[in-house]
User: What shape does this take?
Amino acid sequence: MTLARRTFLASLGAAASLTLVSPTVLAKTAGSKKLLFIIQRGAADGLAQLAPIGDPAFAALRQKFVEEAQQGSKLDSMFALHPSLSRIASLYRRKEALFVHATASTYRERSHFDGQNILETGGERAYQFKSGWLNRLADQLVKRDAGASALAIGDGLPAALRGDFAAASFRPSNMADPAADFLDRVGRLYGDDPLLASNLQKAVEVSALAGESKAIKKRDYAGLGTLAAKLMRGPQGADIAMIESNGWDLHAQAQFRMGVQLDRMDQMVDAYQIAMGQEWRDTLVIIATEFGRAAAINGTAGTDHGTGGMMYMLGGAVNGGQIISDWPGLRQNDLLDERDLLPTLSQEAIISDSVAAHFGLDPVTTRGNLFPHVADRLKIPQIIV
Amino acid sequence: MIAAEIAENRFGLGAVGRVSTVRDVKMALKRQLRDFIARPPAIAAVPDAKTISRMTGEYLNGLREQGIIGKPVIDDSNVTAAQKRKRATEVQKHARKFFGTSGRDFYAQAVAARISTAVSSQTPFAERLVHFWSNHFAISIDKSPIQSFAGSHEFEGVRPHIMGKFSDLVKAAALHPGMLVYLDQVQSVGPNSLLGRLTNTPRRKRKIGLNENLAREILELHTLGVNGGYSQSDVTAFANAMTGWTVTGLSRGPVGRYIKTDNSYGETIFADALHQQGRVVVMGKNYAASGKLQSLNIIDDIARHPATAEHIAGKLAQHFYGDNPPDSLKRRLHEDFMRTGGDLTSLYETLVDSPELWEEPVRKFKTPWEWTISIARAFPDRELYRNKPLNFLRKMNNPPWRPGSPAGYGDRDVDWVSPDALYQRVQFANRIAHGLRDLTDVEKIAKGLLPASLSKTTRLELQRAESPRQALALLMISPEFLRR
Assistant: This one.
């Protein structure tokens, strides 16, 4: 710890004189594995992202979307990855990407907000847990590697990172940093207020780590990917980070917007992968959404809320080049409520076992900590190399 | 002094200059509910929905004169059906474009009106309630045509209705054209409606039909709440009943071509031709086919349902008390709502009379919006905003009418307290304080604003500050000024 603290202070430079609470967040030594969790808020359409073009019922359900799906990267006789995801498709060919299809959390209603809460907090019911599973994972790691750290990149702390573990958060900004003396005074102002004190402390630390590259343009998704890598690389970087991706709730005229959304995500992942350099080998990126969308197109060329969807596992740490799916089919009788793709794989079990394998944690303990309601007899295929 | 401070900060939007010295603070708060002006001058000066509709028509006429879009078809003889279709679609395309691009100006004007109304308001308790309901029925300019609707949604769809019955507020806010566009109702068509039957011919590849987005969010977010006991079949039934509600002049495709909306753009109408005729069952109750009335009857019923009362009581309690409001407070509000059938003024008076809200002075973290407005009110005679508040609110992810989802902006501390968010406030306070001249006694200002809650620690740091300017920045980000 002493050593870690010293490394950390050195990196702070001028701001190191801060009289705030003792730094722990980004000061770390052990463990070189990295986890980036990207949440697609709004229920990203699994059947559009990874289209089951080999399923005979697909064409009738998706009508005019089918043509575009056919132009995607054909990964096997059944599935084609959306044409806007060409960079992720090449990761797949390099065996650094795998996809899970017909998966969902235990949630079976269709509210975004409850669905996201369950995906982020790991409860069986929405709002059952106050803390998020990434936060509890960080807690589990820090017990082993004293300096483990977690970071949200974007706007504020998402539910997955809230909890007892003090996670940092960083948002790109072009406002000037206040002078160290002023921050010292603010630190004293928060002397009796532990909540504000610890938040300020972490902000100052990450700001120092981000250095000059703090301001990125609003729609610069590659820039965001590069920045995320910068904040995660090396022993100073965060072990766990999360990025929120919005705009997936495409009820109407979905086709064009979906292409834009996926292109942005593809750019971000690509830039992140390049900027992680050697450490990409030790990285796991999970991209998940709260639930899928109805199998059939609705009356306004979009899709309404559904159930089963898909999930991405990317990174050098991944046993890539495979699609993990127990495909339920798309005939009327195969669908859940005659409407949605039937989930056949537990999203929570897959996330839990993957991160446990990735960080070398005991899978049973990890499930008990992250998603306690998911039975440990649920077995999942090998996802981490 | 504590009561006066609570009245200003927790119920209101922050003291103007200093906490007022009214004796009966509860009475004064209740009087605000009566003195509230639904259409103050700043808001009356902003183009309303009718004006925007007229301006859109003028813009389209301009395009017609320039030959950019075709003239309206009067004589049918020389025009083929395909040409008519194309011409009709052109109009909607350009109308939508106008709503998006000119919308930037409409939005900026509406934001300025909202800010100046809030900053100068003498009925800040009522203003807070406007902001609360506007966020409860959130729409977002993330969808670009919403820029033209955002101001009118709050100023016409919410503001005039916040003192009446909740069911009337739901109808005004949820059927406002901004909401119909935002949650995709505009294009929802009954599959067996007249238009559905005409359009969905066997050879047509893309069928038109139902979009259940708005119906679901009315149940989940606006009324019953997510645990309100409705099922998917209630959502679908309600969505069927809602078909027909649409907006003039903006819809693309068959809806746009079919709906006759002579020179009206962006106004709510009920088009029988889109409506799925038939009986529906929602929340166990039968609703006979009655066109437009069917959905209105459903809204009337769900708006006074016990689950709605519980949902609204919980949200209001949280807004005024802070995270985890006590059951006694929620129960009192719930009972009031049920007893009056959702009379909102009665609900607000019950809030004022609730002892739980008069305990300790600071508890809840201000949102960036609340914080910014409270700063502007605290220093009324100073030009604090050379940097324009909207820019800052954008950076803080809390500009008016731009939440990331129809659930609106979060209303719990965790939604706004995070390292990055706090750091931005520190940066912002530092920056605006630097633009100030001739401030003298900041400690005195602090005592005037926070007579009861100003802490020793804060006072000490204000005294120690190297300049009045720095002291002012510290006051703005002090633990007590960040909360309400």
About this structure: Residues 135 and 200 of chain A are 19 Å apart (CA to CA).
